[in-house]
UniProtKB/TrEMBL annotation:
This is Histidine--tRNA ligase. It catalyses: tRNA(His) + L-histidine + ATP = L-histidyl-tRNA(His) + AMP + diphosphate + H(+). One of its GO terms (cellular component) is cytoplasm. One of its GO terms (molecular function) is histidine-tRNA ligase activity. Residues 29-381 form the Aminoacyl-transfer RNA synthetases class-II family profile domain. L-histidine binds at residues 86-88, 116, 130, 134, 302, 306-307. Its main location: cytoplasm. It is found in: Cytoplasm.
Length: 502
């Protein structure tokens, strides 16, 4: 029995193929984001997808192979390399390497794929795209305020209506002050502090009662029945839990800041964080962004440990349905904060930096939910049908003329007849086809079939004979009028298929 040696066509888990329609939608959105970043004076930077593992800071020295969520391998001189897991660590390496040559502050934006060696699941991929903007070398929280304003302008630009999003700002120094006040300062409490952070981060999903459980003994997946998985809590005393809950429920704006004064107590870090938040609030108000677009919100914590000051999230506030049909808020599509220690890993001295990252696929998904992309189908090329095989040169000349006039076009290059060619044009989402048989050639004409209008008319024609007689949306023009006629068809289809300009 012969052995089948053919490779099996299969996609690795956690990865996805992206086709023309999604790529066109993504490109349109990326250009709008890029335009806002450049309006703010940020310049483009591209770093490689591969970095030395120790530059990323993701390695375990007690194991043979680096782990902790990155894809790693060794080069020919036994150096460990890894696929980047975000766009911030490579920026820190780049700035440290070119520090003396760069203007300070250094303002850059980057977009590209990042990679996570984690177990994939619903909505969790091993490769996904981010679009970042960062300011390195600016110690003032004015840089943080500006980043938040730019985030708001970006969501405006891609089509998220005001009222459907909010940029929330907190400060890790304030949270550090609260943790110090309840006795969780110092390196020996790092594990419990992380548990507290994770508990607070789940506030939107499980509410204050759920967070209270996670700050105490722990929480069942189904609390009422005490069933399902059990998550061990931080083990805080009741008074400490009350203080953390008071922190996350302080509320937004200046009223919330006033409540936080009592929560942080005498902590110097906490007081410094509150002063920075008040300064950011004043800057935001001066620029006119305090109209609900940007708010101070102590519930924002951000999970990464390298944040050292202000942290922020862009949250979409409109409702969608979960897998059980229940209304839920869409949630975060971008986030970031101040990280004054990342570049310092390379230079041995503090280098202030702040920035944020947009989850590209998630933001695109949000636009689809809002009807900002009425269809993800890309407008395909005009297709010139091949009616006479010995006249390929004539058809190629038509295609060249259309392209020379800026019209996307192709000649059918398959071997099938007219019916199959029309099906091909439909699959290509062609706005129109051009038909020239021998009769049209002798008359110096072409037939143009508007496929979009034809489909609309045909939907109202039930009888096949009537359909053939009507030849919906098909008309003849002189060859020299072909370009203008096709332009007319395209103009009738001018309503943006991506809906990003609404």
């Amino acid at each position: 029995m012969a052995t089948d040696t053919k490779p099996k066509a299969r996609l690795p888990r956690g990865l996805v193929d992206r086709t023309g329609a999604e790529l066109v939608a993504t490109r349109a959105m990326l250009e709008k984001i890029r335009a806002v970043y450049e309006l703010y004076g940020f310049e483009a930077l591209e770093t490689p997808a591969i970095e030395y593992t120790d530059a990323l800071g993701k390695f375990l020295p007690d194991q043979d192979r680096p782990n902790e969520g990155v894809f790693s391998f060794q080069d020919d001189d036994d150096q460990w390399l890894s696929l980047r897991y975000d766009l911030t660590a490579p920026l820190a390496r780049y700035v440290a390497e070119h520090f003396d040559a760069l203007p300070k502050p250094y303002r850059s934006y980057r977009n590209g794929y990042v990679f996570r060696n984690e177990k994939p699941g619903p909505g969790r991929f091993r490769q996904f795209m981010q679009f970042d903007a960062d300011t390195v070398g600016a110690p003032s929280v004015a840089a943080d305020a500006e980043i938040c304003m730019m985030a708001a302008d970006t969501l405006d630009a891609v089509g998220i209506a005001r009222g459907d999003y909010v940029i929330k700002i907190n400060n890790r120094k304030v949270l550090d002050g609260v943790l110090e006040a309840i006795g969780l300062g110092g390196a020996e409490n790092a594990g419990r502090r992380l548990t507290v952070l994770r508990a607070i981060d789940k506030l939107d999903k499980i509410g204050p009662a759920g967070v209270r459980d996670l700050l105490g003994a722990g929480r069942w997946e189904n609390p009422e029945a005490k069933s399902g998985d059990f998550t061990k809590g931080a083990g805080l005393e009741s008074a400490a839990i009350d203080r953390v809950i008071a922190f996350v429920e302080a509320g937004t704006g200046t009223a919330g800041l006033a409540k936080l004064d009592a929560v942080v107590g005498e902590s110097e870090a906490g007081k410094a964080g509150l002063a920075e938040l008040r300064e950011i609030a004043a800057l935001v108000a001066a620029a006119g962004y305090d109209d609900g677009r940007i708010v101070i919100d102590p519930s924002v914590v951000r999970g990464l440990e390298y944040y050292t000051g202000p942290v922020y999230e862009a949250e979409l506030t409109f409702e969608v349905k979960d897998e059980k049909g229940r209304p839920v808020r869409f949630g975060s599509v971008a986030g970031g904060g101040r990280y004054d220690g990342l570049v310092a890993r390379f230079r041995g001295e503090p280098v202030p930096a702040t920035g944020f990252s947009i989850g590209v696929s998630r933001l695109l998904h949000a636009l689809a939910h809002l009807g900002k992309m009425e269809t993800l189908a890309e407008i395909g090329p005009v297709v010139v049908l091949v009616m006479d095989r010995d006249r390929a040169a004539d058809y190629m000349a038509m295609v060249a003329k259309l392209r020379a006039n800026g019209i996307r076009a192709e000649m059918y290059l398959g071997g099938s007849g007219m019916k199959a060619q029309m099906k091909y044009a439909d699959k290509r989402n062609a706005p129109a086809v051009i038909i020239q048989g021998s009769n049209e050639k002798d008359a110096g004409e072409v037939q143009i079939k508007d496929l979009v209008e034809g489909a609309r008319i045909a939907a109202d024609i039930a009888d096949h004979a009537e359909y053939r007689a009507a030849r919906p949306a098909q008309f003849s023009v002189k060859e020299e009028e072909m370009v203008e006629a096709i332009r007319g068809v395209l103009e009738r289809r001018a309503a943006p298929s991506l809906g990003l300009d609404d």
